[in-house]
Write a structure and sequence with these properties.
The structure holds two protein chains of two kinds. By secondary structure, chain A is mainly α. Chain A has helices at residues 2-33, 53-61, 64-96, 102-110, 117-129, 137-160, 164-172, 177-188, 190-205, 209-214, 223-234, 238-258, 260-273. In chain A, helix 7 (164-172) crosses helix 8 (177-188). Chain A is globular. Classes of the chains: A mainly alpha, B mainly alpha.
């Protein structure tokens, strides 16, 4: 009994230590963000006169309103279509093809480990040939394609677990595959679709490589891409940089806190399957 | 999306009497209509560019002028040039930080707390440990650049415990820059690995541990013979995710060090970007990209093989 309570104590201690390590960078940024403008703050030191106005200034300098709008447009362009197309593809691969077409699935799976850097150079020339360079479509279209391996893999795994009787029952009721898909399969797949939506939202919002390479104007980028430009411009003004960074990471953190159960589930399953 | 598919009457009861060949052709057509959009998007923005990468890798091309066939020269350069070899080596050194620290610490925490992650405490833990997964890597890079800065928290802490001689600009130091970048990446992945392993350990049958204790097993034996084998799959997942993240790293290095000082923290992802868009050596960049892709596949294959085995 004694040793097990000692164990519990050690375990709690370890966890608390991990949490402190996780939170320290955020706190350090916050303390720097509140330091007087243009000063050189210390690592972690609550300023005597916290300058909350730094956040307002960073909001203005970073044109946060435009950034939020731009990121939202990109997310709206990428996520709904990717989820729909991946769901259809996953259903097709799980329920409509025989083992003869396993290779098609393997072609998709091959893309799971592909680093984005492996295709970024040709993507640049491809997007340029389409005349889309420096537009949001330069981020939206390639991302839809790049998400297909994971999306299709994810949805196929879900549909494989749906009992075959279900679609047979729908077939006997005279449903076409298309109506069966919409009225029977999609409603049942809601948890899987929800997780996929959350993951794709996060990956799009935080996408950095594509905006940096394909879009010059920070106002047409994702939040993360714009943050890179912001650092390039204001890297020496530590209070402003920290305030701007905190602002830019706020939207995902707020969403995460609201939907945290779904986020945690999605991230964990996403890792397991990915 | 092609709503027209709904007009394809498929497998209605009376059609069960259709000849088998027509029925299967119809099923095949439906399958194609369902899979085609996903496949087309994948082909246009992954498969075609990948083939182009392969094609470019045999060229000498500045991205503008005439391209000339260059044979295997680019690949020979990638595999013999000391700078490029060091850059590839950097990526593998980062694997140590990306993988070993999060998985090691995660295992330690998981076996210590073993299923005590319920209630409000567990909820708070989950929320906080997942934060680094939710923010952009760029933000993590900026936060830690500040932590490692000359007036940052790390140096402040060192001074306060009397280690002033250790104070330095970590990310600008030829020896310490790469480990510092490694620490950033470990921080990002630590929470995810810990939570995966903690969740995994709750699935191990508790009676195994009781039986082991009755047999007089030491904690180390419990860990070696129950926890490790029981977590085989979760460990495999953690290693796979972190190794891919390490070899394909870009965001954090780009933000925190730009690959410097010198090329001490340059990773293949960053070098591809630089070769292709700053030095205009598209052929060499593509060869490096193909090599990187193959390296990722080669590193992941044994992990997958080990962890799938016996399951």
């Amino acid at each position: 009994m004694n040793s097990s309570s000692a164990n519990t104590l050690i375990a709690r201690g370890l966890i608390v230590l991990l949490m402190v390590i996780t939170l320290l960078p955020f706190l350090s940024m916050l303390s720097a963000a509140l330091a007087p403008q243009g000063s050189y703050p210390n690592g972690l030191q609550w300023p005597s006169d916290p300058q909350w106005s730094n956040f307002a200034r960073a909001f203005e300098v970073a044109k946060m309103d435009q950034l939020l709008f731009s990121s939202m447009l990109i997310v709206l362009g990428v996520v709904p279509i990717s989820v729909l197309v991946a769901t259809m593809g996953g259903y097709g691969l799980a329920k409509l093809t025989s083992d003869k077409y396993k290779w098609l699935y393997l072609v998709f799976v091959f893309g799971l480990t592909l680093p984005f850097e492996a295709v970024i150079t040709p993507l640049y020339y491809e997007v340029r040939a389409m005349g889309l360079l420096n537009t949001r479509f330069a981020i939206i279209l390639p991302l839809i394609g790049l998400y297909m391996p994971f999306g299709v893999y994810w949805m196929r795994a879900h549909f494989l677990n749906v009992p075959q009787d279900l679609s047979e029952a729908a077939q006997i009721d005279g449903a076409t595959r298309w109506t069966e898909f919409w009225h029977v399969q999609v409603p049942l797949a809601r948890p899987a679709i929800m997780s996929l939506t959350i993951l794709l939202f996060l990956w799009t919002w935080n996408q950095f490589l594509l905006p940096v390479v394909l879009v010059q104007d920070p106002m047409q980028r994702t939040m993360a891409g714009a943050l890179g430009a912001f650092q390039g411009q204001w890297g020496t003004d530590i209070p402003l940089l920290c305030a701007g960074s905190l602002l830019i990471l706020t939207p995902t953190v707020v969403l995460f806190l609201i939907f945290q159960r779904q986020f945690v589930a999605a991230l964990m399953q996403g890792a397991v399957k990915g | 999306m092609p709503k027209t598919t709904s007009s394809v009457p498929d497998a209605r009861p009376e059609q069960k009497r259709l000849p088998a060949s027509r029925r299967s052709r119809k099923t095949w057509l439906t399958a194609v209509l369902f899979i085609a959009p996903a496949f087309l998007a994948y082909a246009a923005f992954v498969l075609v560019p990948l083939c182009m990468s392969l094609y470019y890798s045999f060229l000498r091309w500045d991205g503008i002028g005439q391209a000339r066939f260059h044979g295997l020269t680019n690949y020979i350069t990638v595999l013999t040039d000391p700078d490029l070899l060091q850059i590839i080596g950097n990526a593998f050194q980062l694997v140590l930080y990306f993988t070993v620290i999060p998985v090691g610490l995660g295992l330690a925490v998981a076996s210590a707390i073993r299923g005590q992650m319920n209630g409000r405490f567990g909820m708070a833990t989950r929320t906080i440990l997942f934060l680094p997964q939710v923010i952009p890597l760029v933000a993590a890079g900026i936060a830690w650049s500040w932590m490692f800065a000359s007036t940052g928290l790390i140096n402040q802490a060192l001074k306060s415990v009397g280690l002033s001689s250790w104070v330095k600009g970590w990310l600008g130091d030829f020896v310490w820059a790469l480990p510092a970048v490694g620490v950033i990446c470990a921080w990002v992945l630590l929470g995810l690995c810990t939570m995966l392993l903690v969740t995994g350990i709750t699935k191990i049958d508790a009676s195994l541990y009781e039986a082991a204790r009755l047999d007089g097993a030491r904690p180390w034996h419990e860990f070696r013979y129950i926890t490790l084998p029981g977590l085989r799959q979760e460990i495999g997942v953690c290693i796979t995710v972190t190794v891919i993240a390490a070899l394909a790293s870009f965001d954090i290095v780009y933000i925190s060090t730009q690959g410097g000082p010198g090329i001490t923290t340059t990773v293949p992802g960053l070098e591809i970007y630089r070769l292709a868009f700053a030095h205009r050596q598209v052929g060499l960049a593509s060869a490096l990209a193909i090599v990187l892709m193959v390296l990722v596949l080669l590193s992941i294959a044994p992990v997958q093989w080990f962890t799938r085995d016996k399951k």
